Amino acid sequence: KAGVTQTPRYLIKTRGQQVTLSCSPISGHRSVSWYQQTPGQGLQFLFEYFSETQRNKGNFPGRFSGRQFSNSRSEMNVSTLELGDSALYLCASSLTGGSGELFFGEGSRLTVL
Amino acid sequence: AQRVTQPEKLLSVFKGAPVELKCNYSYSGSPELFWYVQYSRQRLQLLLRHISRESIKGFTADLNKGETSFHLKKPFAQEEDSAMYYCALPGAGSYQLTFGKGTKLSVIP
């Protein structure tokens, strides 16, 4: 079956702009989580959604938001972009979340100039 | 607070030599621990989880609660083992994982 699909794969934005990233989970998976990966901080948890409800949020400012649709697809949005938001944003899906196995997408690489 | 420490950023070993990737953690209670791996140009994927007690691709990991460690071991390294390895455990909230910063394993032919 198809893996986790993230779009776009690469994007370049300037400071102050906003960006929306999309994630399509594996069919049947209802949990979608998002992680930010940077060389300095590694993988950091952003948020997790299950059946359109955010169940957990990491320690990120309110500029980072997300949502999940009824078909389990998820989007995350970053407003008022800062240089430090440059990162690889990874989406992962799993059947139910919790401590189950996470299936990761290839990521969306965001560069903020 | 939940924390995962992988002390080595880079580990280089010769093919056929034993490999040990270190992972230490701090966690309240009995954690479920994971090793994830990312091969070149591939997605991050689960390698093994301690609860299953499996050996995957020749790798094993034993949870040592006394030393709060979950080191990943393989007796004979292969070139195809070269990758980034991440240790992870459940985060502060539910439904999240806390990852270590990763160790890059390089197996020298």
Write the layout of secondary structure elements.
The complex is a heterodimer of chains A (113) and B (109).
Chain A: E1 5-7, E2 10-13, E3 19-24, E4 31-38, E5 42-50, E6 53-57, E7 64-68, E8 74-78, E9 87-94, E10 103-104, E11 108-112
Parallel strand pairs in A: 2-11
Antiparallel strand pairs in A: 1-3, 3-8, 4-5, 4-9, 5-6, 7-8, 9-10, 9-11
Chain B: E1 3-5, E2 10-14, E3 19-21, E4 24-26, E5 34-38, E6 45-49, E7 60-61, E8 72-74, E9 83-90, E10 97-99, E11 103-108
Parallel strand pairs in B: 2-11
Antiparallel strand pairs in B: 1-4, 3-8, 5-6, 5-9, 7-8, 9-10, 9-11
Distinctive features:
heterodimer, A: 113 residues, mainly beta, 7-stranded mixed sheet, 4-stranded antiparallel sheet, globular, B: 109 residues, 6-stranded mixed sheet, 3-stranded antiparallel sheet
What would you say about this model in short?
With 113 residues, chain A is mostly beta strands.
**Structural class label of chain B:** mainly beta
Largest interface: A-B, 26 and 20 residues
Q: Hey, roughly how much beta strand do the residues of chain B contain? A: 35-45%
CA-based gyration radius of chain B: 13 Å
Strand content of chain A: over 45%
The H-and-E topology of chain B, N to C, reads as EEEEEEEEEEE
- Please tell me the overall pLDDT of chain B: 91
Number of strands of chain A: 11
Unreliable sequence segments of chain B: none
Largest sheet of chain B: 6 strands, mixed
Question: What class would the helix/strand composition of chain A place it in?
Answer: mainly beta
How helix-rich are the residues of chain B, as a percent range? Answer: under 10%
Shape of chain A: globular
